[in-house]
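User: Hi! I'm a student and our assignment asks us to look at how structure tokens line up with a sequence. Could you show me two examples?

Assistant: Happy to help. In each example below, the sequence comes first and the structure tokens follow. Example one:
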Amino acid sequence: MPLRDHFHRPVTKRAPWDALHGQWPAMIVIDLNRRLPPRYLATPRVHLGTSFEIDVAASEGDEVASSAPGAGGVNGGVATAVWAPPQPTLTAATAIPEQDEYEVLIHEDTELSGRLVAAIEIISPSNKDRPENRRTFVAKCATLLQQGVSVSIIDLVTTRRFNLYADLLDLLGQTDPSLIPEPAPLYAVTCRWRRDDAGNGTRNGNAWRFDSWAHALNVGHSLPTLPLWLATDFAVPLELEPTYEETCRVLRIA
């Protein structure tokens, strides 16, 4: 069945785009967990807007420091002066980039505390609408790749023509001939970094290779199958078409 345009009528008259984005990760998870080896677990993650995660280690450290002898008269300690930092060199009114996240995360060891090995990112309009949002999303993908995580990006957003895969390549200093003469506004791609143990001319055999499997998408055409890398030499198929069609069926999108 063909890809629909979920950002314009007549599809939007039936279901908003975020209905697809909210349901599709769950369908991908159901499909993957039927096929993944037992030591891997796929989970959906949908987060809307900005969030902050406090550094628990830093918080606990602050509590220990504040209750330590000599930190402020506690337990008979000697009170010490509180350090006053200098004024900031820059203070500016700003808005925190709103990043909606629709993704599937695959961990090893079937626990969320296990090692993250792959991430599937479904692009939302907020990921593409402003330069700072695009930079934030691309930086996130680059960080995952640097940590050895395979990253798949699926972009069905027809209201913004920016190609975040091309932006990611630009950040990494790479080029993809398939993006010439102009990057496609809709696309699906899997990226990874892997160690090239053969060396290919390096002395210590520690060269790194960047691999990507990119497909331009078109409304009215079928979705591709991407490789989902769980290890350097082990991948499973990420079959987008059947999970997409099942999502549309569940949401009654013709």
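Example two works the same way, sequence first and then tokens:
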Amino acid sequence: MALNLIMLGPPGAGKGTQADTIARDYGIPKVSTGDILREAVQNRTEMGRAAKARIEAGELVSDEVMVGIVRERLERPDARRGFVLDGFPRTIPQAAALDEMLADRGPVVVVDIAVPQEVLVRRLLTRRICSECGTNARPDDVLSVLCARCGGKLVQRSDDNEAVVRARLKTYAQQTQPLVEYYRNRQTFRSIDGNQPPAVVTAAVRAAVAAVAAGRPV
């Protein structure tokens, strides 16, 4: 059975780290909207050109364009056995469009990583990223000064100050948290406590995937 996995969670919840791990473990691609948006723009695909025009005009990339870019990515051969979506969907219209495009691709597992807000604030204020490739440092790389992926220097994000962090969490709650309610009553939805060591969260994600595959109830 293909593993089609959507990772939900606020900034700082660790969903990117978990998406990387699960994608590697199951041999399927991690599909990050930031990565595929940049790729589409660089490759000048039809949707990439549309996204670039909106970005250069100082506008947000529309749901229609983001859905088109994700559709292009999920149609590639490496995604036939499944994928891990990180950062998509972000809105209810995107989620509805994703349901339509995946209608004949088997069950979609939705995992929401829940973390208390004050823990998120603390994590984000101490988060570091690579100055070269932009990769977030793993939570357990507390003593590292270099990126595990490319060897670049780890630095604090310029927008990771408390006022900006709290504003981003508020925006998430207003715009993206409704997705949890959209998916909550599905048999393939699982909510996981993200206020645990990364390895424990990974084990919980694997257990959620196994439970859905076995048809066990929430």
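Here is something you could point out in your write-up. The chain has a mean pLDDT of 86.
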